[in-house]
């Protein structure tokens, strides 16, 4: 699961909140620190841009992993940071009052001790490019390039409520060249990150965990307003985390989080990562963009959208093959705000799912829960619009009771474009999406929409709890056969990968699983990514390639980069690369081939 609703909350969280703080009878809950103290290995690179550690990030009484012995370094000691200003000290004191007396983290879903346990705990510092060791097999030539995985890694130890989706974006990059590999971990230098790094402490409230009930929302909203009035930060420069995914289009690489605009990043020849800046595409992109744009391999076009809490709740748009943004298509026929984390495209259409997750103001006002929740009385809908539409006049909505998707796998046209087929994991227990992810079960379903009759049929194609599914990128928007999905055991932990042959479901309503790979006792990974063995060969078979992912062994506390044969019956190991440092669990990844890296 990933931060699929931050776009919705981004504008809610910093404005239109009452500034009078109601009294609170909340009991005191003191939070112990959970950040891991680690020292990265001495780098073989000459890069020396590791961020200077700050005192507030070093007060860690009991990390969940043992402190590593510090290696001897010949580098001069870092220059001490100046003490915080009086204004920062006062604001932090108010933060502590709110976090201790008004809104302590009483629920497990926002308790840092629970959320940041095991390998969900962040790494302390960035890691410059550092050599890795191939301990099994060999890295195929088609992997020359970089595999990049995005995910949350809070810059500062949470002093109050913290949700898994609230961490600053960190990119973990394994750069592969001629059978060798280096690992680099760098923060995406968002506006939020740089302001808080300069200040030496958090400035913006956490979107997912900072607005639990009217009292907490009013308190944190008032404090944010005062910080803005003093010039501490300017929300017009963005409040996003860029912690969700990545996309390569228009010869540029972007780190994405749907509460903000994309951040352009670059992977250098030695494997380092540089943030180039926030991009608005010549002023044509406003507010935010989905973290799951769809790229048509054949046309080079990129399709995307944004959503939010005020009309139009959905806006559809696209980029041409050169990365130039086209005009917005606002969709006013979606009449209530809904979470639209992902969508799908076909050669003719874009397909959206309006699900039961949305605003839950009554829970926030009269309870102590999040302003986001499930509306059980709402009937989910699927919307289909021509992908080159100039307006929403041809948008059609189809009611699909019980169909709640967070991620879409793929979609395609059939019957000459009169039928749309979509494959996606349906969240059967959507009410637990934010609070109890361990209770979520996602059933991959095949949905068929007859555009002539309006009839919608659907059936499951696998019985396991599956999400974070991918396909061969060449098949986005057209009929594919194979799907590779992560096994939730339970979510958000991923114990293995399955391969589905969804063509089996066309004639027989059966479980389409044709291969399974379990990572092993105490080992968990992330979303797989498919890399074609011969990406430029039009005759290559769809599954002729490799699956790559990071895997962490919680028993040995070591992380590795795993390469699997996507065509083999059991997704056999092709190569294992031992990583020089732990890589925390994260969200979505991307492989960028060498020729594309050179275009950055």
Detailed description of the structure:
The protein has 600 residues and is mostly beta strands. The protein has 7 helices and 33 strands. The protein has helices at residues 6-13, 86-102, 112-115, 191-199, 214-229, 361-366, 594-597, and strands at residues 127-131, 133-137, 145-152, 169-177, 180-187, 245-249, 252-256, 263-267, 273-278, 294-295, 302-307, 314-319, 329-331, 344-345, 349-354, 357-359, 372-374, 381-386, 396-399, 410-414, 419-427, 442-450, 456-460, 466-470, 482-488, 494-501, 513-518, 523-525, 529-532, 545-553, 558-565, 573-578, 589-593. Strands 2, 28, 29, 30, 31 and 32 form a 6-stranded antiparallel beta sheet that branches. A 5-stranded antiparallel beta sheet has the order 1-5-4-3-33. α2 (86-102) runs antiparallel to α5 (214-229). Mean pLDDT is 87; it is low at 1-6 and 9-76. Residues 1-27, 41-60 have a biased composition (Low complexity).
State the share of residues found in helices, binned by percent. Answer: 10-25%
How many domain modules? 1
* Overall strand count: 33
Query: Might you state the CATH topology name?
Result: Neuraminidase
Features:
600 residues, mainly beta, Neuraminidase, six-stranded antiparallel sheet, five-stranded antiparallel sheet, 7 helices, 33 strands, disordered N terminus, oxidoreductase
Chart the SSEs and their pairings.
Elements: H1 6-13, H2 86-102, H3 112-115, E1 127-131, E2 133-137, E3 145-152, E4 169-177, E5 180-187, H4 191-199, H5 214-229, E6 245-249, E7 252-256, E8 263-267, E9 273-278, E10 294-295, E11 302-307, E12 314-319, E13 329-331, E14 344-345, E15 349-354, E16 357-359, H6 361-366, E17 372-374, E18 381-386, E19 396-399, E20 410-414, E21 419-427, E22 442-450, E23 456-460, E24 466-470, E25 482-488, E26 494-501, E27 513-518, E28 523-525, E29 529-532, E30 545-553, E31 558-565, E32 573-578, E33 589-593, H7 594-597
Antiparallel strand pairs: 1-5, 2-32, 3-4, 3-33, 4-5, 6-7, 7-8, 8-9, 10-11, 11-12, 12-13, 14-15, 15-18, 16-17, 18-19, 20-21, 21-22, 22-23, 24-25, 25-26, 26-27, 28-30, 29-30, 30-31, 31-32
Helix pairs in contact: 2-5
């Amino acid at each position: 699961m990933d931060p699929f609703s931050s776009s919705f909350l981004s504008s809610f969280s910093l404005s239109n909140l009452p500034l009078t703080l109601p009294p609170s009878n909340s009991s005191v809950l003191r939070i112990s620190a959970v950040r891991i103290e680690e020292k990265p290995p001495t780098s073989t690179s000459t890069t020396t841009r590791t961020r200077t550690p700050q005192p507030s990030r070093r007060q860690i009484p009991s990390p969940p992993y043992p402190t590593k012995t510090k290696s001897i370094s010949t580098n001069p000691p870092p220059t001490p940071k100046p003490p915080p200003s009086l204004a920062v000290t006062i604001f932090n004191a108010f933060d502590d009052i709110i976090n201790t007396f008004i809104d302590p983290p009483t629920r497990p879903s926002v308790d840092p001790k629970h959320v940041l346990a095991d390998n969900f705990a962040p790494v302390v510092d960035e890691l410059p490019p550092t050599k890795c060791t191939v301990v099994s097999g060999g890295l195929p030539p088609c992997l020359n390039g970089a595999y990049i995985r995005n995910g949350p890694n809070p810059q500062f130890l949470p002093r109050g409520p913290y949700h898994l989706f609230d961490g600053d974006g960190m990119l973990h990059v394994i750069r592969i060249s001629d059978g060798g590999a280096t690992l680099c971990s760098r923060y995406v230098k968002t506006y939020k990150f740089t302001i808080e790094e300069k200040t030496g402490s958090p400035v913006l409230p956490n979107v997912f965990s900072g607005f639990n009930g009217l009292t907490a929302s009013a308190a944190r909203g008032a404090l944010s307003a005062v910080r803005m009035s003093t010039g501490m930060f300017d929300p017009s420069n963005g409040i996003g985390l860029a912690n969700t995914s990545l996309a390569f289009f228009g010869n540029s690489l972007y780190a994405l989080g749907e509460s903000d605009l994309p951040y352009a990043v670059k992977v250098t020849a030695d494997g380092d990562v540089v943030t180039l800046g926030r991009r608005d595409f010549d002023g044509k992109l406003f507010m935010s963009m989905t973290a799951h744009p769809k790229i048509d391999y054949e046309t080079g076009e990129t399709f995307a959208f944004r959503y939010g809490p005020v009309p139009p709740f959905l806006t559809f748009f696209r980029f041409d093959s050169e990365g130039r943004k086209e005009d917005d298509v606002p969709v006013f026929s979606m009449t209530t705000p809904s979470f639209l984390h992902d969508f799908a495209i076909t050669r003719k259409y874009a397909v959206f799912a309006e699900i039961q997750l949305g605003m839950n103001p009554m829970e926030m006002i009269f309870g102590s829960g999040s302003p986001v929740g499930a509306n059980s009385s709402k009937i989910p809908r699927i919307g289909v619009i021509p992908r080159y539409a100039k307006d929403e006049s041809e948008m059609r909505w189809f009611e699909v009771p019980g169909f709640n998707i967070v991620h879409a796998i793929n979609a395609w046209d059939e019957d000459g474009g009169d039928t749309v087929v979509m494959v996606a994991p349906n969240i059967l227990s959507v009410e637990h999406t934010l609070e109890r992810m361990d209770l979520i079960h996602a059933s991959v379903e095949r949905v068929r929409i007859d555009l002539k009759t309006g009839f919608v049929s659907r059936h499951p194609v696998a019985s396991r709890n599956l999400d974070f599914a991918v396909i061969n990128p060449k098949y986005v928007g057209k009929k594919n056969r194979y799907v590779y999905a992560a096994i939730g055991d339970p979510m958000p932990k991923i114990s293995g990968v399955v391969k589905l042959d969804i063509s089996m479901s066309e004639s027989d309503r059966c479980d389409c699983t044709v291969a399974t790979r379990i990572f092993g006792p105490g080992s968990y990974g992330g979303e797989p990514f498919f890399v074609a063995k011969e990406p430029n060969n039009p005759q290559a078979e769809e599954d002729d390639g490799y699956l790559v992912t990071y895997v962490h062994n919680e028993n040995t506390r070591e992380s590795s980069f795993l390469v699997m044969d996507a065509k083999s019956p059991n997704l056999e190991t092709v190569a294992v690369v031992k990583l020089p440092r732990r890589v925390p669990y994260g969200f979505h990844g991307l492989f960028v081939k060498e020729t594309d890296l050179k275009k950055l």
